Amino acid sequence: MPTKNTMDFLEVPAINIAEWSGASASLALGLTVPQAIIVNLTSTIIITVALVISGYGGGQWHVPFVSDTLPFSISS
Prior knowledge:
Mean pLDDT: 76
Low-confidence stretches: none
Number of strands: 0
């Protein structure tokens, strides 16, 4: 069972301007509050799945993040 500290950590990313803007835009388009919450939750889950899939290769094969391999990146 998650502790209070874990729940605080999970709630922080939900408090940002993009989440609030997306929810208010959904309401402005005519969605009800429960529909806007479902749309926001679904889009967040889709984005999370995409990020986890894109990061799997780096975690599995210890490949650095793409920004470390760009031609103009500074490496040591």
